[in-house]
Amino acid sequence: MASLAAADRIAAEVAGVIGGAARSVILHGSLAAGDFRPGRSDLDLLVVVDGGLTDAQAAALQRLVRQADPGAAAGIDLHVITADAAGTASRAPALELYLGRSSTAMEVERRVPADPDLATELSMARAGGRALTGASPAEVIAPIPAEWVIDRGRHWLTVWRSLTDDTAHAAFMVLTTCRIWRFAVERVHCSKPRAAAWALRRDPALTVVRQAISQYAEEPAVVSEPALAALLDRVIGETASG
């Protein structure tokens, strides 16, 4: 697969920039899970380093991501975290560097002292990631308590409850709600399509999930605002005790 070859190539180049301090470059997300969609999915990479990055290394990684060929991927999503931060469970780990490249923009975050969404990212990478270079995910990422992942998911469910009129992101909210829901019930991380299928097995009457699947696949569909609100209320209620 061209995208997997692109991920391998980028991982090798990242390790080359960092040198001996590179502990692991881990592929996770849709490409690792087998749900990659050409032109829609990103390459998701987590880099674990000893001792952090120099400013020169951070700048070199930014140039690398900006210029890299992502194959059939829509963009590149790269997190860099120190081995100490990855190896110690925290609700809000420190982030050494984030680089997010889309077709229209480049996002850069450097030395974020506490990132409350990173614990979920680490949990997902540990569960479903694969090392392209270096140590395996389980060797470098500490187990993240499921309750922390659920709590952060519930935070976003509550935020989205006031954003149900955001039609541009409605399908994303529905499908990510299904991911949060399944993890809370079964402690299983999975892709958006698999989470949607799980939710429909649980309740085939969830038309809003079918609407979101259609919109996610770029088919004509409108996600019902009242149905989205009802789904959020249901999942907020069902995840209240973890």
Put the structure in a nutshell.
The chain has helices spanning 2-18, 30-33, 55-67, 83-86, 118-128, 137-140, 146-161, 170-186, 192-202, 207-216, 225-238, and strands spanning 22-28, 42-49, 75-82, 95-101, 106-112, 130-134.
Could you characterize the architecture of this molecule?
- The protein has 242 residues and is an alpha+beta fold.
- It has 2 domains: 2-140, GMP Synthetase, Chain A, domain 3; 146-238, no CATH class.
- It is built from 11 helices and 6 strands.
- It has helices at residues 2-18, 30-33, 55-67, 83-86, 118-128, 137-140, 146-161, 170-186, 192-202, 207-216, 225-238; strands at 22-28, 42-49, 75-82, 95-101, 106-112, 130-134.
- The chain has a 6-stranded mixed β-sheet with strand order 5-4-3-2-1-6, sandwiched between helices.
- α8 (170-186) crosses α9 and α8 (170-186) crosses α10 (207-216).
- The longest helix is centred in the N-terminal third of the chain and has 17 residues, at 2-18.
- The model has no long low-confidence stretch (mean pLDDT 95).
List the helices and strands and how they pair.
Elements: H1 2-18, E1 22-28, H2 30-33, E2 42-49, H3 55-67, E3 75-82, H4 83-86, E4 95-101, E5 106-112, H5 118-128, E6 130-134, H6 137-140, H7 146-161, H8 170-186, H9 192-202, H10 207-216, H11 225-238
Parallel strand pairs: 2-3
Antiparallel strand pairs: 1-2, 1-6, 3-4, 4-5
Helix pairs in contact: 1-3, 7-8, 7-11, 8-9, 8-10, 8-11
